[in-house]
Amino acid sequence: MRFLAASIASLLVASPALAGSSNVLTLSPNQDASNRIELLLTGNDNQLSLSQTSSASSPSGNSMTINVQGDRNGGKRSSSKLTPTLIADLPWGSLSQTGHSNAMDISVSGSDNLFAAVQQGSSNVMRGSIVGNGNGAAVSQSGQNNLASFSQIGKGNMISITQRSW
């Protein structure tokens, strides 16, 4: 729990915009020292839930780098209650990694973009970039050594990626 508090404090110090109007950031309490999260929010009403879990015997942790710059991104959009998720049981605004050596980078500009991602296993990599308004993206990777990369530019784009390997 001490590491979680230190992580939140370092996020607040490193990203003063995190304290912007009505931004909601939820960090899973099972973070450990081998996992790394970097985050920068500069808009309002953004909503993210971040979770990383690695086993005690894992050789290295997971990493997330997130950069959100608009308003109402992640799981917060006026119509998100009406917009079903693109992947079952993966709620908008949820970014989760379980296993080890997984990497997730998401960079979003604009407003009203919904996104979610989950990686389970080892050595999975997900890259993403959303530029514009009203877009949606969901990525699910299970197994090991999966690579997913996407880019959305404009308005109203939707993408769903599911990969499984063992």
Describe the structure.
The structure is a single chain. With 166 residues, the chain is mainly β. The protein has one domain (2-164). 8% of the residues lie in helices and 48% in strands. It has one helix and eleven strands; from the N terminus they run αβββββββββββ. The chain has one helix spanning 2-14; strands spanning 24-27, 36-41, 47-53, 63-68, 94-100, 103-109, 114-122, 125-133, 136-144, 147-155, 158-164. The strands form two sheets. It has a six-stranded parallel sheet, with no helix packed on it. A five-stranded parallel sheet has the order 2-4-6-8-10. The longest helix has 13 residues, at 2-14. It is globular, with a radius of gyration of 15 Å. The termini are far apart. Residues 1-17 have low confidence and may be disordered.
Distance linking N and C termini: 33 Å
Query: Uncertain regions: pLDDT < 50 for 5+ in a row?
Result: 1-17
Radius of gyration, whole Å: 15 Å
What is the H/E order? HEEEEEEEEEEE
Number of strands: 11
Q: Beta-sheet strand percentage?
A: over 45%
Shape: globular
Number of helices: 1
Give the neighbour order of strands across the main sheet: 1-3-5-7-9-11
Q: Main β-sheet, in a few words?
A: 6 strands, parallel
The tally of structural domains comes to 1
Q: Could you report the average pLDDT, rounded to the nearest whole number? A: 84
Structural class: mainly beta
